[in-house]
Write a structure and sequence with these properties.
Layout lengths: L1 E5 L3 H7 L5 H6 L6 E5 L6 H7 L3 E5 L4 H13 L5 E4 L11 H8 L4 E11 L6 H18 L11 E4 H6 L9 H11 L4 E8 L10 H17 L13 E3 L1
Parallel strand pairs: 1-2, 1-4, 2-3, 5-7
Antiparallel strand pairs: 3-8, 4-6, 5-6
Helix pairs in contact: 1-3, 6-9, 8-9
């Protein structure tokens, strides 16, 4: 299963969806369902998704964390063995799904490594680049588990991993919480260098505010390893 969280990402979806390596995945024995979980887009995100044959889910409210948890819930109700997720804004390259899934055969979780991969010019400003390195360093210092790129939006999970994760994040701190949950549950994390490109459309991530929320999530999970309330999208999605 491929999970794409969206909020006004029509431009990115139009570029990304045709490039999904469906034939290569089929040759390797992977069946594919593309699931778009949307936070209330006002553009043609839904039309592009449904025209391409995606399963389109509309979440109540907004937030990447909430969207991903709803996608995880849908995955757990399916019979798929693995889930790949990445942002649908054109920054990540769907062609790299195959190497992510190949690496998953020997790991519980695979993270696409932007910082150690090939980053296109202007793909990430200096503030975000520095912030990503700092947050990644803090995460490893707090939890002692290797992580190359904490805020990467390109992940692959086994079914066992998704069923093990304990999450309650609503926004962009979700990747940090996924790392902390993997660390606490002693899941094996592997990394794959990936290409990272400049996003299409309006940026949703705010450098300072969201960076602070990610840092706070790391501290909270270091003190309280399991969320007080674990939410995996209870009654909070509709499929259209």
């Amino acid at each position: 299963m491929l999970l794409l969280p969206t909020l006004d990402e029509a431009e990115g979806l139009a570029l990304v969806l045709p490039r999904i390596p469906t034939k290569q995945l089929a040759k390797k024995g992977w069946e594919l369902e593309i699931v778009v979980v949307d936070g209330g887009s006002q553009d043609e995100t839904k039309k592009i998704s449904t025209d391409f044959g995606c399963t389109f889910m509309k979440q109540q409210g907004k937030g990447k964390g909430a969207a991903m948890r709803l996608g995880f819930l849908h995955f757990l109700k399916s019979e798929f063995d693995a889930l790949v997720m990445f942002d649908a804004d054109g920054t990540y390259h769907p062609e790299e799904m195959t190497k992510m899934l190949s690496k998953l055969k020997s790991a519980d979780v695979v993270v696409g490594d932007r910082l150690g991969g090939a980053m296109d010019p202007d793909a990430m400003n200096r503030t975000n680049y520095f912030g990503n390195h700092v947050l990644t360093w803090i995460a490893v210092a707090l939890f002692g588990v290797p992580m190359n790129d904490l805020c990467s939006g390109y992940w692959a999970f086994s079914r066992r991993t998704i069923s093990t994760l304990k999450l309650n994040s609503m926004r962009f701190e979700i990747e940090a919480e996924m790392y902390t949950s993997c660390a606490v549950e002693q899941l094996q994390i592997e990394h794959v260098p990936i290409r990272y490109s400049k996003r299409l459309g309006e940026a949703k991530l705010g450098s300072v505010k969201d960076g602070w929320n990610i840092f706070r999530k790391l501290l909270v999970r270091r003190i309280f390893s399991t969320p007080y309330e674990t939410r995996m999208g209870e009654g909070n999605l509709t499929i259209q």
